[in-house]
Design brief:
six-stranded parallel beta sheet; alpha/beta
Length: 266
């Protein structure tokens, strides 16, 4: 008899998260003995103790705790080592093992845009770190724009062109990505409107890491007839990879993908 495993997503906010629906759809349809829930975590430094207090087998981490999740892990594997950002944790015999499935999930999401050579990322948090490193891996030029200077040295060192709102100079882009939480709970844009307008007038495609709503950023892109995507495909891509890690490859990736995709119809 299997012990039923418990998985969760940690974030602040987290009530909007589709992750429980996605993973539970897989577990239920493939008769895997597990369930998945949400944990509203205000303080990222409490992640490890909360994880063990809930007796979790694994977790996903969303904003703003992806860097805190890296610190909470006993070991880091794969791409997460490179970026210092973790969005998936697996409990291996009482040790927390950290992974990053965001970046590959995003590459899956933008495949249909074709060849991308030049990207501008709005924001400089955990998601931006993962995406910037992943783009650079594929020899894609990366620009980062953030409100303040404090988080930019990391990206400069990585090989990105960096700007604050005050120092920004627009170029031509294949893709502009919003990784900030602007528009998630409000009607804010990720940067002042004059910057966003200039950027949108110089890009072929737009993507937002936020899913489940057309953010003000995407509305502007729509008004300018720019092809855009919200974060749903990125969410699906990273979710499939995370689920594979949760079940230790006991389920087929194609089956995970199929039922996770179905959860978006619910």
């Amino acid at each position: 008899m299997f012990t039923k495993q418990l998985f969760a997503i940690f974030g602040d906010p987290v009530s909007h998260s589709r992750s429980p629906l996605m993973h539970n759809c897989v577990f239920k349809n493939l008769n895997y003995p597990a369930t998945y829930t949400r944990v509203h975590l205000k303080d990222g430094s409490k992640l490890k103790e909360t994880f063990f207090a809930l007796d979790l087998s694994g977790a996903n981490i969303t904003v703003p705790h992806k860097e805190a999740a890296f610190e909470a892990c006993d070991a880091i594997r794969g791409f997460a080592q490179k970026v210092g950002v973790v969005n998936t944790i697996v409990n291996e015999n009482g040790k927390l093992i950290g992974y990053n499935t965001d970046a590959d999930g995003f590459m899956f999401a933008i495949k249909e845009f074709g060849a991308i050579k030049n990207v501008l990322i709005l924001g400089a948090g955990g998601t931006a770190k993962a995406l910037a490193a992943r783009f650079l891996q594929d020899d894609i030029q990366v620009g980062i724009i953030n409100r303040s200077q404090s988080r930019l040295p990391y990206f400069k060192e990585l090989g990105c062109e960096t700007f604050t709102w005050d120092s920004f100079k627009v170029s031509k882009y294949d893709l502009v990505v919003n990784t900030t939480s602007a528009g998630l709970k409000d009607e804010e844009l990720p940067a002042p409107k004059n910057i966003i307008n200039a950027v949108l007038e110089n890009t072929s495609f737009v993507a937002d890491a936020i899913y489940g709503k057309v953010t003000p950023f995407l509305k502007l892109a729509e008004e300018k007839n720019i092809t855009y995507k919200d974060g749903a495909d990125m969410l699906l891509g990273q979710g499939v990879l995370a689920n594979e890690l949760f079940v230790n490859s006991k389920l087929q990736k194609a089956d995970i993908s199929m039922f996770m995709q179905k959860s978006f119809e619910l």
